[in-house]
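User: Hey, quick favor. My workstation is busy. Could you predict this chain's structure for me?
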Amino acid sequence: MSEIKVKTATFQKHANQLESASNGNYLPLKNGNIAYSRANSINQLRSALIDLVDVMEGFQQVAKQDAARLEKMGKAYNKQDKSVAKKISQLEVR
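Assistant: No problem, here it is.
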C-alpha cells in the first residue's frame, strides 16, 4: 500500500469545492477560480437562456392560435364537403 501525501490547505480547498457543489452553490468569483470574463460569459448565457424561454412561450401562443385556425378550417372544409356530397347525391337521384 502506498502513502498519499496531500497538503492540508489543498485538501481543505477540495473539500470546500465539494461542499459548495453538493449544496448547489455556484460562486464563480470565489477564491479566484474563474476569471471575470468567463463569469461575464456565464451571465450572458443565463440572459440568453431567459430570452430563449420567452421566445418559446411566444411560439407556444402562435402555435395554439394556428392550431385553432386549422381546426376551424377543417370543420369548414368538412361542412362544405358534406354540402357538395348532398348536392351530388341529389343530381344522381334525378
